[in-house]
Give the backbone structure.
Amino acid sequence: MPLTVEDLIHSKKTIIVLGAGGVGKTSTSAALAVISAMSGKKVLCLTIDPAKRLANSLGLDALPNEGQLISSQFFQEQGLECSGQLYALVLDKKKTFDDLLKRHTKDPKNLDRILNNRLYRYISTSLAGTHEYMAMEKLHAVLEEEDYDLVIVDTPPASDVFGFFDAPDRVVEAIDSQATRWMVQALSTSGRLSLGLLSKGAAVLLAALSKITGAKFMQEIGEFLLDFNSLFGGFRHRAMMVKGMLQRSDFGYLTVTSTSPPALFELREVQRRLTERGLHPEATVFNRVQLPPAPYDSDELQSAYRELEKNHAGINVLQGKLQEAYDDEVHRAQIDEALLSSEKKHAMPKGTLLVRVPLMEEDVHDLAGLAKLGEALLKV
């Protein structure tokens, strides 16, 4: 188990970042990628949940489906030095699915039939679960074909993320369903839909569907399944390889949350479901934590008050307001620390690193802000 986030980014090949929406998960993923690249690594930040804001902070109009290099000049313009390389991409599920078929289909005619089939166009763009599975495929392809030192994966919000983990099983189940086998059986001899080859019950069902959807569309469904069935052995094998990838020792899991009750509830659910799958979060990042302010009688604060006394009337009223604000920060810091201590003791899996990221004065919106956030992540 890593002792620090720095140990984590140097000991793993892939880090999967999980968390609720709105807790800074995407910013945390990007910050890890930025700080790792600045340390000399070749890093890819792969985001499954499209984020226009992330593209802008990295100096891009949009994130492509293939890794795009963030120029060293862009780092320099923001006062940063990058001794490594930072790449970024956002998942394009349709293109990823097309590329997967091209790898598995040897016959160009079969490939054209599948790509132009209405059912395939629906599956590759709109079917529930396709996006998550294609994210897994993209990650598998990146690790298999590219030579990144580290891949940071920004997953969908916690409410959707386990579709990402379960997608290989769901895709295989859908392809190997009883309905699929019926259709393939009906087409397997002539290439045309033949209800006579099916059991009486299956034939009646498909005949009824033909009346509802139209025989031509049912034929298209059958042809798609027949073409796709020829790929199924390799596709099933690859889906299981993709699933097994998540258990590799060079994969790390990092959860992101805040101290708000809804975020903590989702954090516990994510950790529970990870544990059910035999996975363990190496670290949990608590974003926007109120840290204790500097002591009220510190030289820095007293010097600021003396300057105020020289230049402003009514300093006593102002100083009273400052005292109230200071006391409020102390109180919020005590509440946050109590929440974190309780979470670590009673809810977090044993051995998980707890990382406090302080509430920042400015929102993270550019590369310099991501680098600053990355530095905060390393300070444990």
Summary: Strands lie at 14-19, 42-47, 68-70, 85-90, 150-154, 251-257, 283-289, 353-358. Residues 315-346 form the longest helix (32 residues). Residues 189-215 have pLDDT under 50 and may be disordered. The chain is about 60% helix and 10% strand.
